[in-house]
Amino acid sequence: MDDDQLNKKICEESNESNDENANVVYECCACHEAKFELTFEGLWSRHTHPKDYPDDNWQTRFSDVIGASHTIDYRFWEPDQVSSEGMNTIAQSGITSTLESELKSKSDKIRTIIKARGISYPNVTGKTFAVFRVDQEHHLISVISFMHPSPDWFVGISGLELCLPNCNWITNKTINLYPWDAGIDSGVTYNSTDMPQVPRMTIKRVLVANANDAHSPFYDPTGALMKPIAKLHLMRQRLYEKSCIEEESKTESSICETSAWSDWDECSATCGKGFSNRYRQYKNPEDNHKPYCSKRSMIQRKGCYVLPSCLIENEETDMIDPKCDVTDFGQWSDCSAECGPGVSARFRTILNEDVSPKHCLSRMNLQQTVKCETKTCPDDHDNTDLDVICSNCSLTHWSFWSPCNTKCGFGQRERHRFNLNRTAMVEECDIRCYTQTINCTDNPPCENNMQMEDILLFGNNFMLKKYNVTVQRSLINNVNEKQMLCNKTDTNKTTTASSSENTSITPVTINPDDVSEDSTEKCLLSNWSKFSACNAICGLGSKERTRTILSPTDPMEQKKCRKKLVDRRNCRGRQCGKCNYSQWSEWSLCSALCGMNAVQQRTRVPENPSWTWCKDRIEHRICSALACKSD
C-alpha cells in the first residue's frame, strides 16, 4: 500500500510510427497493373540507437530484403502468428533461400517475389533497391529484413495495401520500420548467446512499453518514443494498361453483378475544361448494401474539353507597363493531334521592339495553350489523356513554344520537356510526353514580288522584318526617284531601276528562301542547315548546324563578316539504361616490385558491350610492396 503498487494506469497503446497499413481494399478495382520501386533505407546506428550498440560494429548489417506482392488471403508473416521455418533460418544464419522456397510454393498467391541485397557495415545506413509489380488480385505486399547481430529481431511490413478505393494505385509512400521479435530466441541484447524459445512464441512488436528488461537496447525508463530502425520508400514507376471489361468478365458472377457501363454523358463545361461521367447499376438492388459489393465503383469520370476555349480574363491594363503594349492574340492553331486529345495555342507580340521580352514576360503571357480534341481515334489507346499517359513519368514543365520555323507560308512550332529521372529507361514514357507540335497561324503568305515602295521608304531593316530578305543598297539611288521606281516595279523576282541619267542598274534577284534573316548589307549569309544527329547514343550530347557566306566571295573580305557560321547546342539521346556489369576480374600483378607507386588493377565489362555510357569498368588499388632499396 505504501509503495503505490496497488494501482496501475492502463493507456491505449500509442502509434509510434506512420506505417500503419491503410485499410485493406477487399476487392481492388484498379484495371491497370502497376510497377513499383522499393527502396529500403537503414537508419540503425550508434547515433540513433546508442544504448548498448554493438562494440563490434563491423558486424552490424541487415539481411537481404525478401518479400512478395500477393493476394489478400495470404501472408508469410503476421503479428501474433508463429514465424515460419524460413524466418528461423534467416534469424540464425541470414540465408533467405528457405523462405524463398516457401514463397515459391505459394505461387498461386504471389505476383512477384521481392528481393534486394542486404546492407552491411560501413553502409548500414545506406539504401538497397528492388522492383515489383501488382495487379487487381495481387495488390498487397509483405517484406522483412533481419537485424544482425540480434537474437531474432527484424523489421518489415505485413499486408501493406497499394490499391486505392478509387480504382487507382498509390503514387508513393514512406513507411517507418520498427523492430519485431520473431519469437524464436529469448535473448534480450544484441549479442545474447543463443537461447532457443521452446515452444516458439508468436511474433510481437518490440515496444518501449514492453521492453521491461533494463538490458534491452530498446529499454527507456522515460517511455520516450522509439526511433525507427529503417525506412521503406515505395514509388510507382509505371502503369500497364489492361482492359477492365476483360477482367470483369473473368470474375463476374451472380453476386454483385452489375449492368454494362452507360455512354459518357455530355461535358460539364460549355467551353474549356470540364468532366464527363458514365454509370452502371447493380442488377440486384440488395447487393448495394453488401460490404463486399460496396467496394465496386458505380461511376467513372474522365476529363473533357470544349472548344472554343473560355474567354480568359483581361489583364488589368493599369498594372501593365506601357512599354509592354502588345498586339491582340492571333488565331488558335489547329489541334496538335489529328484525333484524340491534343493542344491548341495562340500568340501575341510586344509592339515595342526596343524592350527586352524578359522585362515584359513577368507581367503578361504572350502564349496561351488549351487542350483540344477534334475527333475520337479508332484505337482507344490514342484517346487516353496525355496527363494519364505521362502520370508515371517524372517530367519537367513544358517549355515555351518555339518561334515558327518559317517566316512565311506553312510552318510549325514545338515545345519540349525532359525526364528528371536520368536512370529511367526511355521506354518507360510515351514519346508524346516529351514533344508537342502545332502549326503556325500568323505567317504571311510567301510572295516573291517585293514592293519597291517598301524598299525606298523604309530601307533594309523594314525589308528584313517584313519580307525576311536583305536588299543591296546599290538598288536605291535616291529618294527623289521613288515615284519613277514605283511605276517601273517589275512583277517578277527581278527588280530594276534607272537613274536620272538613264544609267541602267544591274538587276538584283531577291530570293527569300536562300537568305538568312540576320544577313547585313555587307555580309549575305545562307540559311542554316538542318541540325546534325545527336552525337550521344544516350544521355547528354551535342548537335550542330552550319551556314556559309554567300557574299562577299573574297576570303579576305569574308573575315569581316563577324557572324557565327556554326551553331552548336546541347541535345539528349535516349535515356541511358542501368549499367549491369560482369563480375570483377582477378587483381593484376603489381606494376612494380617495390615502392609506393606500385598499383594493381582489375576490370569488368558491361553485359552489352555497346553500352558505351557505362564507364565504371576499371578499378585500381595500391600494392602492399616493400620500399625500394637505395643505391
Describe this structure in words.
There is one protein chain. With 631 residues, this protein is mainly beta. It is built from 8 helices and 25 strands. It has helices spanning 85-93, 97-104, 244-251, 357-361, 386-389, 452-467, 482-487, 555-558, and strands at 33-42, 61-62, 65-70, 110-116, 127-134, 140-148, 153-161, 172-177, 180-181, 204-205, 230-240, 272-279, 299-306, 341-347, 367-373, 412-416, 435-439, 494-495, 508-509, 524-525, 540-546, 549-551, 566-572, 599-603, 618-622. The strands form 9 sheets. Strands 2, 3, 4, 6, 7, 9 and 10 form a 7-stranded antiparallel beta sheet that branches. Strands 5-1-11-8 form a 4-stranded antiparallel beta sheet, with no helix packed on it. A two-stranded antiparallel ribbon has the order 12-13. Helix 1 runs antiparallel to helix 2 (97-104). The chain is extended, with a radius of gyration of 36 Å. It starts with 32 loop residues before the first strand and ends in a 9-residue tail after the last strand. The model is unreliable at 14-19, 246-253, 312-319 and 449-510 (pLDDT under 50).
Give me the count of strands.
25
Mean pLDDT: 76
Main beta-sheet strand count, sense and barrel state = 7 strands, antiparallel
Separation, N- and C-terminal Cα atoms: 90 Å
The parts where pLDDT drops under 50 for at least 5 residues are 14-19, 246-253, 312-319, 449-510
Note the total helix count: 8
The quaternary structure here is: single chain
Question: Can you tell me the overall shape?
Answer: extended
Strand proportion, as a percent range, falls in: 15-25%
Helix share bin: under 10%
Structural class: mainly beta
**How large, in whole angstroms, is the Cα Rg?**
36 Å
